[in-house]
Amino acid sequence: MWNDLASRLATPLRRGLCALALGGLTTLAQSAVVQIINANEPGIGFNDPTPVAPVGGNPGTTLGQQRLVAFQHAANIWARTLKSQVPISVLATFEPLNCSDTSAVLGAAGAISVWSDFPGAEKPGTWYPSALANKLARQDIDPGPYVDGSENDIVAFFNSELGKPGCLTGVGYYLGLDSRVPAGQLDLITTLLHELGHGLGFQNFSFGGVQLAGQPGIWDHFMYDVAARRTWLQMTEAERVASSIAPRNLVWAGETVRSRAEQVLERGTPELVLHGHGRHFRGERSLMVGTASFGPPLGRRPVVQAMGQVVDQPDGTGWACTPLSPANIARVAGKVAIVDRGGCTFTVKAANVQAAGAVAMVVVNNVAGGPPPDLGGTDPTIVIPAVRVMLEDGVLLKKLAGSNAVASLGLDMERLRGAAKGNRVLLYTPNPYAPGSSISHWDTSALRNLLMEPFDNPGMPHAVRAPLDLTYELLKDIGW
């Protein structure tokens, strides 16, 4: 998984700057220059002398050299994409980061400082990350040098222990430049592009809805709460805090992203729609779902049927981990089977309700919060669709099981995958709040997968703009 800046970085603030002389600077747009500042001590990180063979177009012959070549390769991709007259300086290290056998911090990056009310700022009283502030001011507004390195624009650090025993054992970085990542390895270039994207400005400065030093960041102008029908700039702090944990409700309102979203994202958002006219439920309601890696995908033609709940546990829940009893078969045959998470794999549950005659399966999560994760697993014998819903929505489904209410599992073709109506792309707002991940990423429902999602997605192209990605489009919205 990606892991980004949190409490490690104390971001210096700068505002109320005096006017800066701009004489002699050209007004012609030019490609950016991204400079890598190697901050590692001798013998470690970028200076690690361990011999290695060249790989995937990376000519380095030591581990440190290959890391530096890969870093500069990713930096050059960004440099060719952006326009700035001011070099972008990245203070970078490879060093040990938090690890376990099953998880690890891959890396992190962010703006070293943020600025407001500088000459060239497009929005007053608003924080901008250093690299973007320099671009808009058309000169380095904080050249330094300082002992702590804060004259640089971006700080970036990456895990030097990845793949070693106790740190995602055996799952290391692939240092090639060609995207041909072997199974069981992680693409360093993709990680670098992601983290540099944060440092360039794909980063919210209103942490959890609380504005930095009581002032909005540039993101607050473009984050739009669908339910409240307001941007974060127009909301109170309490409203922003609530918005930051409302799954799949906060969207990016920038016009550049909206106009290019249809070139990047697939059309058709998976959903479960309830239809009812009884005592417990009347009308229609759309529920968020996580989709399954097994069984047929949801399609334009939905599965529409009444619901039946599996009950096979003493507490009244149903795991469907063993062949269903006659009573449970009677409940789910020809219907959408409602089962609970727990006790066995999702494919085992699906096989058992399928054998009982169910036409689809809905797994109810066993912990509160959302959005509902996808269902993992592989079983080619599963021929019914399966989805997962949040615990809160599962309570309603169970209440409606056996009634005249029906569930429709299919695709909302009016929406792009990972966007709300109107092609406004969703930001990642899980509940509970995830420090370092919430808000400063695209939502995990996006498909095609996007570079700036919070988790590593294998097979990502080395691209940062449409038609393969939307990172540059967001940066362009904020001023790049």
UniProtKB/TrEMBL annotation:
Keywords: Hydrolase, Protease, Signal. Residues 308-395 form the PA domain. Pfam families: PA. GO terms for molecular function: peptidase activity. Residues 1-31 form the signal peptide. It comes from the Bacteria. CDD domains: PA_subtilisin_1. GO terms for biological process: proteolysis. This is Serine protease. The lineage of its organism: Bacteria, Pseudomonadati, Pseudomonadota, Betaproteobacteria, Burkholderiales.
